[in-house]
Design goal:
Layout (H helix, E strand, L loop, with lengths): L2 E4 L8 H10 L4 E3 L10 H9 L13 E4 L2 E4 L1 H11 L7 H25 L12 H29 L14 H16 L1 H8 L3 H12 L1 H9 L20
Parallel strand pairs: 1-2
Antiparallel strand pairs: 1-3, 3-4
Helix pairs in contact: 1-3, 1-6, 3-4, 4-5, 4-6, 5-7, 6-7, 6-8
Amino acid sequence: MIYVLYYWPGIQGRGEFVRLALEDADAKYVDTALLPEGEGGGVAALERFLEGDNVECPPFAPPFLKAGRRLIGQTANILLFLGDRLDLAPRDAASRLWTHQLQLTLGDFITEIHDTHHPIGGGLYYAEQKAEAKRRSKDFLANRLPKFLGYFERILQRNPVGGPGMVGAGITYVDLSMAQVVAGLRYAFPRASRKALRACPRLRTLHDEVFARPRIREYVRSGRRLPFNNDDVFRHYPELDG
């Protein structure tokens, strides 16, 4: 099967969590964010599904994935679907559900990271909410960042199988996503994340192992992986970095 991934052009965003799974599994896929509109890509490709009355199960927002006749939205839902097919999820039902639960918790974490620079509303520019963003970031870095990182560090430590990731004996899609979050935090909050990650050696190791995986390393070097930038989920504003 050739998958088709739909996401906003110009940013990694939440689409990157899906890309990492597809790349690590060497799956065949088309990334419409990298295609010009004349070739079926860009914003026009998204609007065809978001605004089309003829879509049976329309997604609310990207990312969404076309897999045959299926159109699947929501990052965690897409990864739940892909996990079995790409051998990036455990085989037993209980562990698959646990992996999905961890991905949903990671989604909560990502939302809180995003809201440090857009605490009032996504429709407002950062410059219109700088004072509130500074206040929100101060609380996030002092309380929420160590709480989330500490939780995932404990999950890695308590993996009963002793694998390199959070669930089972191998790397799953939630491990790929966790590595992406660590990379994003290092871009957005270099000072604060360096301090917070000192207490999380397993998360640091997981990040390094994921980005050393041959297909992920090749993806990063290929030019298909867009750089972090300040139109994205992870944004670097020095005044917010603790």
